Each structure stands twice: as C-alpha cells, then as structure tokens.
C-alpha cells in the first residue's frame, strides 16, 4: 500500500455524505487513497434494488471505470454486472447500510469475479443491542403498564396488583433468555447480558450447536425458545423463510409473566396472532418494530397495557451512522494492506438472506 494509492469512489446522496461521513474518517481514508464522491439520488428500499435511467447508468459507469474500490449507500444505483465488467481494476465493493442484503450490489457476480464485497450495516448493532437490553428491563418491570398509570393521572401503589402476575416487577438477574437469531446484534446483546448471569439459549438454523456450546449457550428449536425462557428476543433478519414465522402457537407456549421483545422486523411476527395473545395471556411485549409501520392510529396494540412501544428507533443514533463509514475505512485498510477483511458478503450470506 506504501507504493500504491487506490482510487476509491463513494456513490450516495447528499444526506448520507453529510451525516454518515465523519471528517476524521475521511481524512484517514485519503491518506491511503485517491478519494472521489459522486452524488446521486436514486430511490431504493430494503426490499427492492434501485432502478436507474440510461443517463444515470452512463454517469455511474464513467465514474467507476478507473476505481479500485466502490462504496455505495442510499442514493446509489445498483452496481451491476455491466458496471463491474467496465471497472477493470475493481477489487473492493462496500455497502454502508444495506442490512446485509446489499440491494445496491450484484454481490453474487462480484464474488464470482474475486471482488471483496463488504457490508458494514452491523454498525447499528451497537445501539440496537443496547435498546434490546433496555426493552428487556422495561418488560420485566412492566414499566409500560406503570407509565400508563402515571400519564393517566391514576393513583396506585407499585404492589397493589400483586394478584396479577403480569404486573409483578421482575429482575433480569439469572433469568432465562431466548434469542431468535444469532448475528451481530445478538452477540453484542450477550455481552451486555453477561453481568446479569443470565442463561442464554438460541434459535438459529445457521449456527452450529458446537459454536454455541463453546459460549455456554444452548441451541434450541423455535418452540423451545418460547416454552423454556422468561424472555424471548427476536433478532432475526426478515427473509422469505422468516416472514410471518412467529405465530399464535409460539405465543401460546409462553409462560405467565414472560416478555417478548422485537427489535428486528415487524413482518417476522403475525400481528393478529400477537395481539390476540397479548389480549388473552399474562405476557408482556416490548416492540420497536411492527407490521405495518407506522403503527395505525386505531391499532389495538396501542391500547394494551401490557405493551411498550417505540417507533423503530433502536438503530437510529448519530454515532451508528458514522460508524458505518468508520468500519468501511478500516476494512479498506485491511484489504489494501493484504489482510483479511472481517465483514464480507459471501455466497452463504446471500443464500441465507434469500431464505434458501
């Protein structure tokens, strides 16, 4: 890298450039590269790749043709087979915030061309895991119920609901915690749970029992996660395999006083089934995500005293935004120094995300 300065291009909209790019990280990148920014404003979502006009494709093709590395984020067109083939020196493509689905990259083709495909979406795993811990504590203390009493100007004492198990205050210490999904967020949440001496079990078809046993965690089936834990936390990605995965049969397995937390995606849960269970069982739900979003004004979920809601804010911190780019710069240092990168999109990742 001492004798070679790679050409690095960032393609995104102005909002990303102003909010995700910390000047200190940018200066660090400029020390090892010739950096350029192309402002584009293509629309894309978590579910669909961006569609671009021929004019935009031509502009992108010209910008990327001599690049050694391309970084994309919101506003960027898709880095297609055509763009990849036109960029003869390309060895690195990075997605700042793609939820590890990388809709803006033809990842499979890039990997087949021996190009490193990197996704640093895990930058938001820090605040999401923090909020998951917060929601666990809120649920165990029935804090949503108590707060509703306060804002409704009702007089009550903390223990006058002692005959109803749902409103008893519980501690997190030594509780049994079931995790649905064992990715970046789950691993960080486990670090935060360690001081509480919790017993952790995991449902994740893609993680081996041996891997979990080395961490002193149990591998369970989904039904067991619901039947054998005090708290169940949904951390799985939304894929064809996980959509509508959690249903009434699972909620019926929860014991009285159990807490269900969802900080992943609302569509993983059957909304009608969850509401029915909350209306008829002595359980609590703490939800940062919902289906649909935003939560309809007339939704029953807003009225339930055994529910705490937040408006999909778990990952939305200012620091998490700059962390995406910070870690991407670190990955470029590794890549162009000949070291192994840490956050690769692989063919296995693509397969898992497509639910195969």
CATH superfamily placement of the largest domain: NAD(P)-binding Rossmann-like Domain
Structural class: alpha/beta
Our count of domains comes out at 2
Q: Helical percent range?
A: 25-40%
Strand content: 5-15%
Q: From N to C, what is the helix and strand string?
A: EHHEHEHEHEHHEHEHEHEHEHEEHH
> What distance lies between the first and last C-alpha atoms, to the nearest angstrom?
39 Å
Largest sheet: 7 strands, parallel
Protein traits:
single chain; 356 residues; alpha/beta; Rossmann fold; 2 domains; seven-stranded parallel sheet; 14 helices; 12 strands; 35% helix; elongated
Characterization of the model:
By secondary structure, the chain is an alpha/beta fold. The protein has helices at 14-20, 23-30, 54-64, 81-86, 107-112, 125-140, 143-151, 184-193, 209-214, 222-227, 248-251, 271-280, 318-336, 347-353; strands at 7-12, 34-39, 69-72, 92-95, 116-119, 176-180, 199-203, 218-219, 231-234, 259-262, 284-287, 307-309. The strands form 2 sheets. The protein has a 7-stranded parallel sheet. A 5-stranded parallel sheet has the order 2-1-3-4-5, sandwiched between helices. Strand 3 (69-72), helix 4 (81-86) and strand 4 form a beta-alpha-beta unit. It is elongated and about 70 Å long. The model has no long low-confidence stretch (mean pLDDT 93).
